[in-house]
Amino acid sequence: MKASGFPYVIPMLLLSVAFFATPLAVLVGFSFIGSEGATLANYIRFFGDAFNFRVLVNTARLGLETVVGTTLLGVPIALLYWHSGKTTRQVIIFLTLIPMLTSNVVRTFAWIVILGRQGPISETLMALGVTGSPTSLMFTELGLVMAMCQIDLPLIILPLIAILSRTPVQFSEAAQVSGAGPWRIFVTVLLPLMLPGLLAGWILVFASTSSSFVTQAVIGGARNVYVPQLIYREVGTLFDWPMASAIAVVLLLSTGCLLVAMTMISRHRRLVGHA
Amino acid sequence: MTDFTMTRRHFGLLAAGVAASAAFPFSVRAAAGETAIAATFPGNWEDGYRTVLTPLVKEAGYDLTIAPSMAQDQLAKVMASPGNPPYDTLLMSPGQMAIALENDLIQKIDPSRLKNWGMLDPAFQGEYGPTVTIEVNGIAYNPDMVPKPKGYRDLFENPAYSGKVSWTGFASNTAVMAYTEMAKIFGSGPSDMAAVFKLFKDHPEHLKGVVDSTNHQMTLFQQGEIAVFMCSTGNVARLKSLGMNAEFVQPETGSPAAPVNIHLTKGAKNLDAAYAYMDAAISKAAQDALKMPPTEMFPTNKDVALTPEIEAYVTRDQLAKMVYPDWAEINKNRPDWIRQFDALVAG
């Protein structure tokens, strides 16, 4: 009789309970604490303020914009990797990994130079005659999305490369021989193949962007407020931990809902059916 | 060649060896003396205190770990671990000290354990810890980009400053002191913050430059993104030391000022080392070094002469004429002001 594998899972289960489930339960528990015992007051206060709801929407929008941006940049890079020889592949992997070895804080501060009035973007726009005076993209959502796309790009490229590395290039050649054009090959052959990698990348990019406190605060400034800044304000400035916990739970649930939606879309029969 | 097989016994011995060797430096350190864990503000303070105070504390037979953290963050961290504080000492202004007292986070000190206590003016001998400097606040500006501002009113009325001024939220002590001054100028008194909020609504160009902290503002100042921000003399000294053309101006209505104190946390584990650190911070040797660029901290030790650069900011006689805000009133209103200002800034 084959032995049960359950005992081998026990250490992992214990670790998950100790370091994931328990802190999460504490967080949820904290969110229901009020001055007179258990209460829903923190949630009512959060949703009762239109400002908070707008911050939540802004955070989701920032995450989705970065997902779109990194997808548009990451897919061509991954396809280039797929079609390239060994040397080019090594260069692509190197260029993808190197930024990941640099601290997010350093990369964020580098973006201040790039997006600033005297930065390369402003100077290029002036040289092309698009703008007549120096332009700053600091404290704008566009500037923040650009910075987040660069910072989170490896998170989408690497899962795509992992998927495509296991896929023979002959797949697209076979479709080409069968008379399919490049666009049809991409939509009917490559996209369904890449979907698991895209999904993994989307989840990573969305989660990373919506919780990226430093970049949001530095590049976005105080005008673009996102949920992590709201949580930090409640904990570090107002010392209202139950409220901070409630906001964190709302962020967790809303992010979770969006990720479930992404998963469901990616498993749609019309998309996966071609694979 | 003989094959090597790792048995469970070998693995256990190896793990024990690694653990013992990793613990060795700590045991040696423990034998040598205590280490004071001191929270200080990041940036200039962190650099200055680490460089100047560490050797002085070492001379007294203790080690010192400087842990950079903003005053509000220090409070949050100590509140998060009641009875087991992550720091032995805190560095705070009276606003945060009031909160620390209210939450029973700090304790009275024993001045007889500080050799340099007598070198402090009585005004700087707090029962909850010594005052190590007075932070004088005002306006920093870049003379290459804007004219010298007269005061807060000028920033809103002179078009030369339009779009070039940066502000921070009410979480910053520097900002809250500037806003209470503006409330006096544009409203009925220091707590009339509705007048300040209206001022910002009427001048939306000032809302574009609102950022999270003075540290961000210093980065933006270096990049030429902004030309004016509310600061302490220490911020300007730091920018100058980096080669920036930065100047400090006292507002015509007076400079807000805040004493900065070292406090002993309740439940501090390394009391002897903490006292050695406090004593070093108020010693002549330390304050003589910290009054020089790039820190240029105002010395509270009577034996330390002011430098011409510090006297250009403020003299000892002028200290009494500085504006010292009512922190009890500020603390009472601060949460509401923070929420209102954040909503206003986010539009």
TrEMBL record, chain A:
- Tagged with keyword Transmembrane: yes
Keywords of this entry: Cell membrane, Membrane, Transmembrane, Transmembrane helix, Transport
**Protein's UniProt keywords contain Signal:** no
Ranges that cross the membrane: 12-33, 62-82, 91-114, 142-164, 185-205, 243-265
The record gives the membrane topology as:
Multi-pass membrane protein
Matches recorded under Pfam families: BPD_transp_1
InterPro entries found in the cross-reference section: MetI-like, MetI-like_sf
Show the coiled coil region(s): none
Q: What is its main location?
A: membrane
Q: Where in the cell is it found?
A: Cell membrane
Q: Where is the ABC transmembrane type-1 domain?
A: 56-262
Its family remark reads: Belongs to the binding-protein-dependent transport system permease family. CysTW subfamily.
- The name this protein goes by in its record: Spermidine/putrescine transport system permease protein
Q: Which organism is it from?
A: Pararhizobium capsulatum DSM 1112
From TrEMBL, chain B:
Name the PROSITE patterns for this protein: TAT
Report the InterPro entries cross-referenced here: SBP (IPR006059), TAT_signal (IPR006311)
State the UniProt keywords alphabetically: Periplasm, Signal
**Annotated signal sequence range:** 1-30
Give me the segments passing through the membrane.
none
Q: Which PANTHER family match?
A: ABC TRANSPORTER SUBSTRATE-BINDING PROTEIN (PTHR30006:SF2), THIAMINE-BINDING PERIPLASMIC PROTEIN-RELATED (PTHR30006)
Return the protein name. Answer: Spermidine/putrescine transport system substrate-binding protein
